[in-house]
Design goal:
- The protein has about 450 residues and is α/β, with parallel strands linked by helices.
- The chain has one domain: Glycosidases (TIM Barrel, Alpha-Beta Barrel), CATH 3.20.20.80.
- The chain contains 16 helices and 14 strands.
- The strands form three sheets. The protein has a nine-stranded parallel β-sheet. A three-stranded mixed β-sheet has the order 7-9-10.
- It starts with 8 loop residues before the first strand and ends with a helix.
Amino acid sequence: MSKFSSDFLMGAATAAHQVEGGNIHSDYWAMEHMAHSTFNEPSLDAVDHYNRYEEDIRLMAQAGLSAYRFSIEWARIEPEEGKFDEAEIAHYRNVLECCHANHMTPVVTMMHFTSPVWVIQNGGWESERTVLAFARYCGYVAERLGDLMGYVVTINEANMGLQVAKIAERYKRQMMAKMSRMQAEGLEGTAQIGMNFNTMMENMQLQKQENKAAFGTEEPQNFVSGRTVQGDILVMRAHQAAKKAMKAVKPTLQIGLSLSLHDIQAVSGGEEMALREWDEEFSHYVPYILEDDFFGLQNYTRSVIGADGIQPAPQGAELTQMDYEFYPEALGNVIRRVSKEFRANKRDMPIMVTENGIATEDDTRRVAFIEQATDGVAACMQAGIPIIGYMYWSLMDNFEWQKGFSMKFGLIAVNRATQERIPKPSLEFLGKMAESVM
């Protein structure tokens, strides 16, 4: 018996900056090329998905996948404020048409961490101007491409700024307590994004002048900068404004956002702190997303909270390359908790798993992770929770932000000297699971 129904979207995900290459008008490109960059290496041509998207989409289709989640790059579409690039619109139309030609449902993300440089120069993700600018960009894309779009994620991991702020604060407290460098580095595994917190802290003073030159301020507010409470709500307003702008053009678009969620578990003495952690990570966003068409859920591991805060992974636990605990059970746990909260607010919100995956060189562990994680999804569906899709992160080994190309999340390996694609057994495994729903 199949795990999933015939209309279930089984796919893989990418983000434009991480795979396309040459994203020269973005804030990340500027940060990667600073003399005192916190990035291990620049993205450069990444895995050249911009030119090789047809091959990559065809590989997914041949494996049996039915959906592709990818992002449209704002910095390409609007490289200068108010000036839209029709050639780039044509490019993404080609990508969408390629999805449809290969019977792949596109799931389009409008903003996956990267912003045009001019957005950051105008105050970035703490500025009211960004709400209007983002809505204008999203409305423009819907007008030009909405006929080929179905599911839309406005903002990827809209809560990432708060997570980064909390981790930075924990880091500072640890350093003030004179903890060892090794202990401090363990914090990097608590954010569901590749970040180098030690290097960030060391380079902070050196970077200020470089930031001033690139962005007009010593402390630019990029999307993954530590978020203020006001900035956190501003991101929600940007989401709502973008949804309104896109619906005005194409009312049938199914629109939501995604949040980065941990399976937050309390041990003795950590119960109250765990509740606060969940509220900050999810609950306080619910009023802003209750009227969305679906919710994008992103999970990689669990977070255990004790009397003194987040606990290290258990002794002897298997860790991924990102220092996450190997814990595929987390996905089902988070889905159940999210669904329970939506229902408490009188909304049986459809859920799409927009990211779930593992960074490892051992593809047998990736297969095991996918199997166990999707077992959890299937169990939730059997319990009546409306889940519409599962997007594995990621389609290819790619540019994992500050960590560079060292993290191997992909179903497909890439020889970056030649850009040759080398499908892993995990791609076939996920594809066979997708084929079983047909």
